[in-house]
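User: Can you fold this complex?
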Amino acid sequence: DAMVIQNPRYQVTQFGKPVTLSCSQTLNHNVMYWYQQKSSQAPKLLFHYYDKDFNNEADTPDNFQSRRPNTSFCFLDIRSPGLGDAAMYLCATSRPGLAGARQETQYFGPGTRLLVL
Amino acid sequence: DAKTTQPPSMDCAEGRAANLPCNHSTISGNEYVYWYRQIHSQGPQYIIHGLKNNETNEMASLIITEDRKSSTLILPHATLRDTAVYYCIANAGNMLTFGGGTRLMVKP
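Assistant: Here's the predicted assembly.
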């Protein structure tokens, strides 16, 4: 089945130690997104890629970076994780939508829960 | 994106219809209404969307008022597996801005 895969499901890192979360997709979608979801809160968009074009949300901290080496894979790098970065990180994909038209359905992975010690 | 307002929580008896309201009084003409849900410890899942007309699919029905200022998601026969947070989103373009959502608890 076509899907969005996130590994690992749980990641433990130390305060200040760089960590990378990965996402892969078999849907061949042009657009990939990273969301952060803290406990009892709604998902919050960090950034997205349209093909190789990177689009950062205005309030995404510089501590968060992303790479998309090809259509199938996208990585979230947290350069110096703080305790406040502990959260669920969700990857999603979609086809590109047309401006002013309906948004294409986003397909989410199961998420990676990050714990910072 | 238009701001949406949803009740924070609702209960529903198993087998009964669950009617989840959403207010989007500032929605603009080109903004669609989308519903996603998030079951505990999973990623959000698309349910349904609409612009003006009522919509139905295998998961749910979406009723949008004529003035488009509010909508209702209907799960016709709720099951325990429908227990989740339901997000109503109103926007145009490719981005999703999640609000607080409604935590639906389906009870036996």
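Chain A is about 0% helix and 50% strand. The two ends of chain A are 36 Å apart (CA to CA).
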